[in-house]
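Supplementary Note 3. Input sequence used for the single-chain structure prediction.
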Amino acid sequence: MKQDQFRLGAALLLLGVVLLVLLLWTWGTIKAFGAPAGPGEFGSIFGGPSALFAGLAFAGVAYAILLQRHELGIQREALAAAREELRITKQVSDEHLEYLERSARRHLTLQISERFAAPIMADARLRVPEWVAVQNRRYRDNDLRKADDTIDRAATPGVRTLTLTEPESRT
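The predicted structure, written as discrete structure tokens, is reproduced below.
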């Protein structure tokens, strides 16, 4: 908004300066050489300002070309930055898509395994306590047999074994 107001003010100022230059040029020419005799002479009064404004117009065109060149350079830099951002965004998007695909495969695998393994797991949950009890008995029985074998090997014929009994109470 402020920039538009500035541009409007600058345009009005430029128009005022142009009109002032033309007015002063015309007044100065008439003052110096007198009033023109005909329309041809009157038109010739404006030859000097015409050349001046033509030169200024050419300078303005040259300046506009330089400004445009500068703006195009800035635009190229912005496009390069945008291209890099798009490349990074694509890379992140590809990684995210890959993650989603892996996640979907894992989820499908879990669904399939739950569907087919659920009856087996339910049966295993019922049988595990029984299996653990059987294994515990085997190990306990095995440990007792080892202990008996050790005692039997240690006992020699003719050696009495001691029997431990509780002492009698003397009451």
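The radius of gyration is 55 Å. Residues 46-117 form one domain.
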